[in-house]
């Protein structure tokens, strides 16, 4: 089987790494990939959806997997399906679950999926009125895609009103913020739960927990994610059962009833409040960095999971996971998340420690290959050091041992990933 992976981050590298170990997979292509994915397969400099479909047809590629949200929202799946090509991911219509926070919140309300009290509006006066009914903190969200940065948690009503005003005026997020959602803040602990769906059936992956803030103890600004671990002991069978019955089943049923069956990854952002799972948001792709921890926990061939979901046959798949834990630590560039940093050469020490061999690896993200053939840190989140173990503590220890083997100028990372569980 030949596979094309759309995207360029650590998530796509991790999927490639899982497929590389899969005996059924012969060749992997990345479009566009990053400076390190050329070690796993071939990078393609093609971005146009029709041109990518032409390549898939001409080269007999059996499966395309879409990593990031933007091409999904823009309709890459529709283009491929219209040409009879097998692709993993939701249609543009189904991708509205992430592409529009207003669509998502209204969908949850229509199908009685538990979520925070909210209004959606493009009128400042209406936003102010609702803000006055809430206690701080207050959540203000831009409707459209903002690269994971369109959510403000305001610490006062005045701050919430300011955030709403800046979004609605187009100053904060341009077009993406000209309609907004204002909602009550939920106080609990957050989980990332992923269901691989084929339109009717689904497989739930081990629940993960990511660390959004830049600094230890969840301080500093929000980022795209500074690390994650899976599975989290904060989820028990009761919470999984509630998610099944109250969230995943009604969502898949509702999507089908509304004429947009959901295929791909349903990423469920959950807040557990007094033992009850309340839905914060849906995304329509793997989280990054959660994907980097989930892929090495997958015991079954990765191609089976993705292919059977793409062709609507998850029922016949036998999907198993290792009884292990994974911890991933993001190593970021010097000025992340404030501004771009100077490119810096990445040097990885030779691994001689028996503890690390086979139990730790790097998933590369914001890296480029120089003309000298060396790897350079050129993005914000540069790479993820992933450790595996029989306990979270063991996995964390291995991840940080690997962090110590990686060097580039200005590197920064948190030193407390998985602290909630430990």
Give a short overview:
With 422 residues, the chain is of the alpha+beta class. The chain has helices at residues 10-20, 49-59, 69-73, 76-82, 96-99, 101-110, 124-131, 157-168, 237-257, 290-297, 302-310, 392-403, and strands at 2-7, 27-32, 42-43, 63-66, 87-88, 118-121, 138-142, 151-154, 180-184, 189-198, 202-204, 209-210, 213-215, 219-222, 227-230, 263-273, 276-283, 325-332, 344-345, 347-348, 360-364, 367-369, 375-377, 381-389, 406-407. A 5-stranded parallel beta sheet has the order 3-2-1-4-5.
What descriptive keywords fit this protein?
five-stranded antiparallel beta sheet; 25 strands; Dna Ligase, domain 1; Rossmann fold; globular; 12 helices; 4 domains
What report would you give on this structure?
There is one protein chain. The chain is an alpha+beta fold and 422 residues long. It has four domains: 2-90, Rossmann fold, CATH 3.40.50; 117-184, Dna Ligase, domain 1 (2-Layer Sandwich), CATH 3.30.1490; 189-316, ATP-grasp fold, B domain (D-amino Acid Aminotransferase, Chain A, domain 1); 325-407, Phosphoribosylglycinamide synthetase, C-terminal domain (Glycinamide Ribonucleotide Synthetase, Chain A, domain 4, Alpha-Beta Complex). The protein contains twelve helices and 25 strands. Helix 1 (10-20) runs parallel beside helix 10 and helix 7 (124-131) runs antiparallel to helix 8. The mean pLDDT is 95.
- The helical percent reads 25-40%
Q: Provide the spatial order of strands within the biggest beta sheet.
A: 3-2-1-4-5
Number of strands: 25
Output the number of helix runs. 12
Residue fraction in strands:
25-35%
């Amino acid at each position: 089987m030949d596979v094309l992976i759309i995207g360029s981050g650590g998530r796509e590298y991790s999927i490639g790494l899982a497929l590389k170990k899969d005996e059924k997979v012969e060749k992997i292509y990345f479009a566009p990939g990053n400076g390190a994915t050329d070690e796993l397969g071939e990078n393609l400099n093609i971005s146009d959806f029709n041109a990518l479909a032409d390549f898939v047809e001409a080269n007999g590629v059996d499966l395309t997997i879409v990593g990031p949200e933007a091409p999904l929202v823009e309709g890459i799946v529709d283009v491929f399906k219209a040409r009879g090509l097998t692709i993993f991911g939701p249609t543009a219509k189904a991708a509205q679950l992430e592409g529009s926070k207003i669509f998502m919140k209204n969908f949850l309300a229509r199908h009685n999926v538990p979520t925070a009290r909210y209004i959606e509006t493009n009128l400042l006066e209406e936003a102010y009125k609702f803000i006055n009914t809430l206690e701080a903190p207050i959540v203000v969200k831009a409707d459209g895609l903002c690269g994971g940065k369109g959510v403000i948690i305001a610490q006062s009503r005045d701050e919430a009103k300011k955030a709403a005003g800046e979004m609605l005026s187009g100053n904060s997020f341009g077009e993406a913020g000209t309609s907004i959602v204002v909602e009550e803040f939920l106080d609990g602990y957050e989980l990332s739960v992923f269901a691989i769906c084929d339109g009717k059936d689904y497989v739930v992956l081990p629940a993960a927990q990511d660390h959004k803030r830049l600094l230890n103890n969840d301080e500093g600004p929000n980022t795209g994610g500074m690390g994650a671990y899976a599975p989290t002991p904060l989820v028990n069978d009761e919470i999984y059962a509630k998610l099944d019955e109250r969230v995943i089943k009604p969502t898949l049923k509702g999507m089908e009833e509304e004429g947009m069956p959901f295929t791909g990854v349903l990423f469920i952002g959950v807040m557990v409040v007094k033992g009850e799972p309340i839905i914060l948001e849906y995304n329509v792709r793997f989280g990054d960095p959660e994907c980097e921890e989930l892929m090495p926990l997958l015991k079954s061939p990765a191609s089976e999971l993705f292919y059977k979901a793409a062709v609507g046959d998850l029922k016949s798949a036998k999907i198993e996971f290792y009884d292990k834990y994974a911890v991933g630590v993001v190593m970021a560039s010097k000025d992340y998340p404030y501004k771009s940093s100077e490119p810096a050469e990445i040097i990885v020490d030779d691994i001689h420690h028996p503890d690390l061999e086979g139990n730790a690896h790097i998933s590369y993200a914001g890296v480029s290959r120089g003309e000298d053939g060396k790897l350079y840190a050129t993005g914000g989140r540069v790479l993820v050091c992933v450790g595996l173990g029989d306990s979270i503590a063991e996995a964390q220890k291995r991840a940080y041992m690997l962090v110590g083997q990686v060097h580039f100028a200005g590197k920064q990372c948190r030193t407390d990933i998985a602290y909630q569980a430990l």
